[in-house]
Amino acid sequence: MRSPRSGESGSRGVIVNRTRMLSRVFSAEACEPGEIVIAADRFTHGSRERVVCAHSDLLRGSVERSGLRAVVREMRVSPAAIGGLDGAGMAGWALSYELDPAHCVGFAAFAHAEDVRGAEVAADAIAEWSRALRTRVLVREGAGAVCTGTRRLLETVARQSDGSGERVVVYGAQGCGRAAVKEIHRLGGRLGGEGVAPKPGDVAVVGPLPLRGEERVVTEAGAPVPVVDATCERYRAAADEIGRLSGQGGHVVLAAPGREGAAVESLGEAVAGRLTVVSDPGGAESVPVPAPGAVGVVLVPGRAVRPSLAVEGSLRTRFGHVIPQRPATYCWEADDRRDSVRSVAAVVDLLLVATDAADQELDDILSWVPSGTPVRAVGALRDLEPGWLRSVGPVGVVATSNAPPQLAEELLTGLRLLGPTDTVLRSVSTTRVG
């Protein structure tokens, strides 16, 4: 697209279809060479007097990827060049379109009237987002990125922090992820342990993992602190099964496929010396046990059930018999999470993954997506590129557990401003029926 030049008529370069208009615009306001000014609120575009600016981060990302500085501010827009710009005003391009007959949304970007490079960047950015506009279905994963145990913990912290005047100290949040820890801090809580002792008047929230061993929650002076139990029910059920099997004199094998974590370590403390962690069926073939006729198997909550049962199957093949965990105590949330992501990926042209830097869970999600479905990892709304959306219909949005809590919703909000949309939830849920 040809960039606007100072003094050219604002009536030229207008592209109009039934709902979309793209044209040159000008402003008498000041702008520094080398920066792009993005309209922040509303602007007039031809006969459209109240065009609401779409999310500025979308256009900001395009500008910053070009190497120029983006400035977002409210400004007055004119459809024609104002006499006497003399290098002091701004020339740019505006895009507007009808979300519905009563609402117009769009973008406007400007550069210094004599900044040729800036004018090209503004024109290209507006043109690229123009090509990304269309009617779409947005598909959101309904299972959620965090498990029930973590959600219960955050809800408990929020209740205890809500206007009570009490401070909240959290124990057992190991392994919940960076985003959950940030949310605890946002809610006014802090993590206990490792030299952080509660103070008089504090309340301790324990979960989703329990306190370690003989650990007690007391102040530095040794005074007890009120404790609110938010321990994960699935974790508690697994711990009870370990106690039941070890109480029968068995050696317990903890089936923990994938990366070991805080839940594995915490469960292992329950019967120190009589519990072995096995991460794959191959490991089960060589794990030492003192009494082959009394081997119990427990599945770690938060891990997929089938790979865990493969460990049990390998032990059963090796020894001919194992003492199994009761199936009613299995945790199916990892399976539901994986299958929910797959259900979203199966019906979209593009899958956006809201994530955080160096998030290991991103690799898991990529492994769940069917071959051939394009996937883009997004750490902020401004990372969304218009080229990804060209010729793309349904778009899916999922999130890792470490992603900023509001990022997935911010992505959906941004996408809703790129044309008429409908948003649907897809999820898989396992329910016990006895």
Taking all Cα atoms into account, the compactness measure Rg is 28 Å
Main pleated-sheet profile: 8 strands, mixed
User: How many helices in DSSP terms?
Assistant: 12
Shape: elongated
Distance between the ends: 64 Å
Give a description of the structure:
By secondary structure, the protein is of the alpha/beta class. The chain is about 30% helix and about 25% strand. The chain contains twelve helices and 21 strands. It has helices at about 55-65, 115-130, 150-160, 180-185, 235-245, 260-270, 280-285, 305-320, 335-345, 360-370, 385-390, 405-415, and strands at about 15, 20-25, 35-40, 40-45, 50-55, 70-75, 90-100, 105-110, 135-140, 170, 190, 205, 225-230, 250-255, 275-280, 295-300, 325, 350-355, 375-380, 395-400, 420-425. Strands 1, 2, 3, 4, 5, 6, 7 and 8 form an eight-stranded mixed beta sheet that branches. A hairpin with a 2-residue loop joins strand 4 (about 40-45) and strand 5. The radius of gyration is 28 Å and the shape is elongated.
Entry summary:
With 434 residues, the protein is α/β, with parallel strands linked by helices. It is built from twelve helices and 21 strands.
What labels would you give this structure?
single chain; about 425 residues; alpha/beta; Cobalt-precorrin-4 Transmethylase, domain 1; Rossmann fold; 8-stranded mixed beta sheet; 21 strands; about 30% helix; elongated; disordered N terminus
Secondary structure layout:
Blueprint: E1 15-16, E2 20-27, E3 35-39, E4 42-45, E5 48-53, H1 56-65, E6 69-73, E7 90-100, E8 103-112, H2 116-131, E9 136-141, H3 148-161, E10 168-171, H4 178-186, E11 189-191, E12 203-206, E13 227-229, H5 233-247, E14 251-255, H6 262-268, E15 275-278, H7 281-284, E16 295-299, H8 305-319, E17 323-324, H9 333-345, E18 350-354, H10 361-368, E19 375-378, H11 386-389, E20 395-399, H12 407-416, E21 421-426
Parallel strand pairs: 3-6, 5-8, 9-20, 9-21, 10-11, 10-12, 12-13, 14-15, 14-16, 16-17, 18-19, 18-20
Antiparallel strand pairs: 1-2, 2-7, 3-8, 4-5, 7-8
